[in-house]
Model the fold of this input.
Amino acid sequence: MPTRRFFTANQLKAIALVCMLVDHLWATLVPGREWMTCIGRIAFPIFAFELAQGCIHTHDLRGYAKRLALLAVVSEVPFDMVAGGTYFYPWHQNVAWTLLAGLWACHCADRCRTAATLPAKLPPLLGLLAALLLPGLLLTDYGTAGVVMILLFWLTRGGGWRCCAAQAAGLFVICQYMLIGQVYLVGPFEIQQECFALLALPLLWLYNGQHGRKSKPLQYAAYAFYPVHLLVLGVLFMAR
Done:
């Protein structure tokens, strides 16, 4: 783990939002520039890391879940416009549903950890199983792999070189074997394009544990960025 850490949570989120925008520009208005979607792979690990941190530190888990649920509902039509070029596209759901499932998975895993008896562990275990399976069944963005990634960052929240090594190994396995995309030949090996997500790790390892400036307008703007930029890109994409 680096000894000099200077990225706040707000700064990491800003980096993730920019990377996401670059990726969505590639998917809609600027096709053919593959480097843009490679940069886009950096976004989700940062969101997964920040959600895991939020699950640990929030004093209102229910409120956090409500905000994610509202974001998921509001974002669905703009996401459909980008993903399918139509106002209703049932074959792919937006990433906020995956984040909501990841939050529930972390909560269930924590309840399972603290439950004193096996019967008490059963309900959170079932909740954890549902959180893992439903995103895959409902075809949410990143699906089950996204929830596993969030759990990875929740489980490795302690810091230290062992946690860094576990994050690197776990993220590689998720990107290489759980996600499907463009494949690059590196010598005799086939490497998934999703493995560019590992470039997010040095940024996460420079996280200083601070939230940064706390502001309600800033918080709402960060939430609004996802559906608003999708709506703008979707309108332009469908108008072409």
In short: Residues 3 and 215 are 28 Å apart (CA to CA). The first strand starts at residue 183 and ends at 186. The beta strands are 183-186, 189-192. The mean pLDDT is 94.
